Amino acid sequence: MNGRTKRLVVLCAVVAAAVCFAACGPSLYTFNLVPASQAVEQARQANAAEHAPYEYHYARSYLDKAQEEAGEANYQDAIRFAEQANEFGTKARDLARRRMREQGR
Asked: Considering only CA atoms, which of 43, 49, 52 is closest in space to residue 85?
């Protein structure tokens, strides 16, 4: 490759990297939101509102807050809230299932 071709390749790489990094916030948010939404929905289906109300409502609140922050383009906060929603949604689901098993349902 000659010097001009190398500069063109480097320029293209820099532009591609800039485009990718500019889209990181929304992409990472979506990457975290999907499992969080699934965890909260699974908790709802496991009747966690009755059997694990603290964990379920905590997860639901964090999911709502994540969506609110993303709507305001605060993606770092939205990601953090989505991670918390996922964690507590999973806890709520597991706790609700365990309590239902203990009750013989």
From this structure: 43
Assigned domain for 56 exists: yes
In a domain, 67, yes or no: yes
> Mean pLDDT by 10-residue block, N- to C-terminus, for the chain (105 residues)?
64 51 69 92 96 96 95 91 97 96 85
Question: What are the structure tokens assigned to 97, written together?
Answer: 């299932």
| Cβ atoms of residues 39 and 89 within 8 Å | yes
CB burial string 60-77: b at 16+ within 10 A, e below: bebbebbbebbeeebbee
> What range defines the domain where residue 43 resides?
24-102
**pTM of the full predicted structure?**
0.75
